[in-house]
Amino acid sequence: MDMDSGQTIYQQLGESAGLLSIIETFYGKVVQEPLLAPLFPEDISPVIERQHQFLTQFFGGPPLYSERHGHPMMRARHMRFPVTNERADAWLACMNAALRENDVEDELREFVIARLKGPAYHFVNTP
Ligand code: HEM
């Protein structure tokens, strides 16, 4: 639980359907972002599905990702891609825009971005 509301972030984002809408908006931006698009497969739907499972559990919902794929080891799973600081910035900017477009209120949006910043810069593996 977070932000003293008694609700998980997952609940505050609208549970499964709310999170899915945000993630679909997010990947719509990622595939248009010149720094990020080349890293992703043409068919983005499996990525959307795995991200939905992951962020569900990351934000306090059921552990869907671990149930299906085992330990997240997210930094390791990103090692085969050249993640630079600029790409982490771009990833976070796409997420910030996706949250805005899904009418997530400012305080919650900023909290979500702050929670994702740690992992994003931790995944940087290329100068
Ligand atoms: C820092 C910039 C980031 C870049 C450039 C990046 C890039 C990528 C790429 C290229 C993939 C693989 C797509 C494929 O399946 O071919 C991927 C998968 C994924 N990313 Fe990221 N990512 C970033 C940050 C993050 C963050 C911050 C999170 C969550 C905290 C995240 C969660 C995931 C998940 C859950 C997957 C699917 C993993 C799987 O295959 O099971 N990524 N990412």
TrEMBL record:
<dbReference type="InterPro" id="IPR012292">
    <property type="entry name" value="Globin/Proto"/>
</dbReference>
<dbReference type="InterPro" id="IPR019795">
    <property type="entry name" value="Globin_bac-like_CS"/>
</dbReference>
<keyword id="KW-0349">Heme</keyword>
<dbReference type="InterPro" id="IPR001486">
    <property type="entry name" value="Hemoglobin_trunc"/>
</dbReference>
<keyword id="KW-0813">Transport</keyword>
<dbReference type="Pfam" id="PF01152">
    <property type="entry name" value="Bac_globin"/>
</dbReference>
<dbReference type="InterPro" id="IPR044203">
    <property type="entry name" value="GlbO/GLB3-like"/>
</dbReference>
<comment type="similarity">
    <text>Belongs to the truncated hemoglobin family. Group II subfamily.</text>
</comment>
<dbReference type="InterPro" id="IPR009050">
    <property type="entry name" value="Globin-like_sf"/>
</dbReference>
<keyword id="KW-0408">Iron</keyword>
<protein>
    <submittedName>
        <fullName>Globin</fullName>
    </submittedName>
</protein>
<keyword id="KW-0479">Metal-binding</keyword>
